[in-house]
Amino acid sequence: MNNPIKPIPCKILEIKKETALEYTFKVETDIKPDHGQFLQLSIPKIGEAPISVSAFGDGWLDFTIRSVGKVTEEIFAKRPGDVLFLRGPYGNGWPIEQFRGKNVVVIVGGTGLAPVRSMLRVFAEDPGFAKSVTLIAGFKNEEGIVFRGELESWRDKFNTYYTLDRDKIDNWNVGFVTEYVSKVPFGDFGDNYEVIIVGPPPMMKFTGMEAAKCGVPDEKIWVSFERKMSCAIGKCGHCRIDEVYVCLDGPVFNYTQAKYLVD
Fold it and tell me: Which residues make up each annotated binding site?
């Protein structure tokens, strides 16, 4: 019987620098997650951290990681050929089949792009999957842009609004993502659409409020919580909010429930 919490050693195939603080690690493994799920990455005697899968394929997974603590600093010291320990996948991912044939609106802030990246690849590679895709992506500044090459390639496939908080660069807007929600033609979609919001908690809160102003009902909004998880199997209570265990019931939630999940 498989042990659900036993880490498996996996070789690092490639490391790509995204920004000064974020790197993407391609890891060799046969683990097959759903879009939006996460794994626990660990280093013996150091610790472990929950990381969303930012892309996957046959025999590999991508993890886009920000260096913010002891575990991630140790991961950043690794090189291709070194080993990371993985366990998972865990949690509920995006209900991607529910998005088929619909007008999908994806609104992300910063590294919130990582948990939706694999799904956006599906939309880009299979133009018939979604009726249309609108991508609103915001970053603090130019130095914080992740997956820049893919963002540029998606301009030809999606309706895009890319924005920086204050920096001015060619072909990018200035301002917060909340300022661009009203540009989405929800009235033209009828009832055939879904909205995905991922980013820091304040960004998701205020973006959800802007969507509500545009007439979007809560049940059409989906979010992913980037709350710190520990055991990932609902035993330690570290991620518990009231009666909800984020690691089991999330990290993807419908907004009808997510709007009440406040620490």
Answer: 231, 236, 239, 247
How far is the C-alpha of 28 from the C-alpha of 148, rounded, in Å?
24
Evaluate whether residue 135 is within a structural domain.
Answer: yes
Residues at the binding site for [2Fe-2S] cluster are: 231, 236, 239, 247
Beta strand 173-174 with 83-90 is unpaired
Domain boundary among 36, 64, 89: 89
When divided into structural domains, the chain yields a total of 2
| CATH number reported for the structural domain that contains residue 64 in this entry | 2.40.30.10
Residue (of 106, 114, 116) closest to 193 by Cα position: 106
- Give the integer Cα–Cα distance in Å for 188 and 250: 31
Per residue in 47-96, pLDDT (tens digit) is 999 999 999 999 999 999 988 888 999 999 999 999 999 999 999 999 99
Q: Which domain holds residue 208?
A: 96-258
Q: Round to whole Å and give the CA distance between 30 and 113.
A: 24
